[in-house]
Amino acid sequence: MENIYIYFNFKIRQVLEKYEIKNIYEIRIRVNNNVILNTGMGEIILDVICNEKDVIDTFNLITEYSAYAYEQNMAEGFITIPGGHRVGIGGYMAGTIYDKPIVRNIRFINFRINHHIKNCSEMIFPKLYKNNHLCNTLIISPPGLGKTTLLRDLVYKISENFAGTSLCVIDERNEISGCYKGVPTMDLGKRTDVISNCSKSKGILMAIRSMAPTLIAVDEIGTAQDIEALEYANLSGIFIIATVHGKNQAAVIKKLGKDFVDLFEKKICILNIGEYLCV
Length: 279
Fold this sequence. Notes:
Layout: H1 10-16, E1 24-30, E2 33-39, E3 42-50, H2 52-62, H3 71-74, E4 78-81, E5 85-97, E6 100-112, E7 129-130, E8 133-134, E9 137-141, H4 147-161, E10 167-171, E11 192-196, H5 200-210, E12 215-218, H6 224-235, E13 239-245, H7 249-256, H8 258-261, E14 266-272, E15 275-278
Parallel strand pairs: 9-13, 9-14, 10-11, 10-12, 12-13
Antiparallel strand pairs: 1-2, 1-6, 2-3, 4-5, 5-6, 7-8, 14-15
Helix pairs in contact: 5-6
C-alpha cells in the first residue's frame, strides 16, 4: 500500500507513523483540533493538534502544490490520490465551478483509506452464478462497510478466471481502480478495462459503444441517469455488477424504485465489515 503519511508535514507525520496504516480506515484533520484515526475497533485521538498551516501543508501535498489542476475534483468535494484513497475536503463554500459549489479556505480534511483485501469475496463469488451464467448483482451497504472493496475483488476474480470475458469498470471517482493520471494502481485482473473520471451514465454508454464489454462494474449508483444507463446495458445483453448505499433491500427500493432493484437477480447486503447476506 502507498505511504499515505507522505501527505502530512513532519509535525503530524511523526505521530502518525506510530500506527500501522493497515489498521486505519480514516484519518481526520480539523483546524485547531486533534488528529483522529478511525479504525475497525473505534477511534484514536492523537496527541497532536492541527493549526491552519498543518491543514494547508496537507492540502498542498495532496494537490502537488497545484490546486488549480484539481479544481474539477474539488468541485465534487474530494480528491483521489494514488491507491484509490479518497480525500474529502471541507471549508468555506465560495461560488461554483462546473455548476457545483467550490470549497475555498480548506480547514477540514478526511482521508478515507482504501484497503485492497484480496479474496474477501471468496464466500460470495460462487453464489453469483445461476445455470452456469453470471447473474446481475447488486451490492447494498451503508457507507464504510467495504462495498467498493468487495466489488473490486469480484471484478478481479471474474477477470482472472473466465477466458473470453471482457470487463469494463466505470470508475467515476477513481476508487475502484485507484487510477492516477489514467493508470490503475489496483489490480483488477488481466481482462479488465477502466473508464475513469467521467460520470457513470456517460461512462456506461461509452463502454458499450467502444469497448464491447461482457460485464460492466460500477460503484455507488444514485441518479436517474445512472439507472437509465444500466437498463440500457442490461437490454444490450451485458451483465452488471453495481453497488448502492442503503441499509437493506427495502431501503434501496424506497430510494431508487423496485424496477431498479429488479434488474438484479442477486443482491448482497453487507451487514458489517466482512459479514454478507446474499439473496
